[in-house]
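REQUEST
  id: r-88c1
  op: predict_structure
  target: Methylesterase 11, chloroplastic
  payload:
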Amino acid sequence: MGMCLSRSSGPVKKRQSKRLTNQSAAAVNGGGSNRWSRNRSSKRDDSIIQERALAAAILLQQQMQNGGGGGAVPFDRSASLRYPNSNSKKNQPLPRSSSSRARSLTDPLLQPHQLVNQEVKVDDLETNHFVLVHGGGFGAWCWYKTIALLEEAGFKVTAVDLTGSGIHSFDTNSIASLSQYVQPLTDFLEKLADGEKVILVGHDFGGACISFAMELHPLKVSKAVFVAAAMLTSGQSALDMFSQKTDSNDLMRQSQIFIYANGNDKPPTAIDLDKSLLRDLLFNHSPAKDVALASVSMRPIPFSPVLEKLCLSDSKYGCVRRFYIETTEDNAIPIALQQNLISNNPPERVFHLKGADHSPFFSKPQGLHRILVEISRIP
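RESPONSE
  id: r-88c1
  status: 200
  body:
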């Protein structure tokens, strides 16, 4: 989660970006199925997701117990790698749009053919490789639904554990800079072949992380997607961003637990979150099983990177196409703050994910997936 130490309200500037709204309408293929069929399908999907979540939690616990060394443990990115779709083909078309399908409150997983326009093929895109960057306290594990959906649609997906996050074996309290925190991402980009590009997706504080990477490797980033994320301007830190608001967020302040690994007379080294307040702060519309997964998987947030001001240039960071996905029911980065970020640093387009909390990969995985695919198709 992001470092929302304090927030101010104040007038929101008029945005210069085009807003695209995620709306629901009639069911795909002319009318919906009966209620019994929908419930049976939803229960079957819930069972699959619960099995994946449990497997991810067990994997995380085992790796944390057995890792212990100085390096990162490889992350088994999704169940789709273990259970490949035998019907998938290299040149399969992208699935059809779900924008005309009625959506339930739980945003049930739909079949791939119900998602997006089938006329565009994955291989026709500038890049079919998504790189997912988690927010503060999260890890690569939080993207498990998004990974499965994108891979089933024919995309290549990499979810990165930043330093001291997820199952990366490093002491969070020892992270002294943003470059150190983002190093797993920048190392990955450096190893890409010449001419190879990816779509960077950053959530929460991951927005500052992908901005840092865009400045270093602009030619390796086709597009950047900020999901309820810190989309900073040059000379701004994440702490500066949240200090823009004058009204404090009581829930955020109540949930923060400062860690002083170097002594109480020294600056904080990390921030942890009160587990009892996680649901209300980050997962107010997310399924209970995903909240349970997060409660045993989240790690403290390193403090030094939050204080660091970014140096972003028009010639590097500015040449990468940027897109923003708003989350309307967000208690961690309220929609008003998201709109301030957009007004101060307008992206190419703004997408509006209705009903999403701060963790849309849990609360609205299907809607988030549809938008990501749409962004990949923008010429």
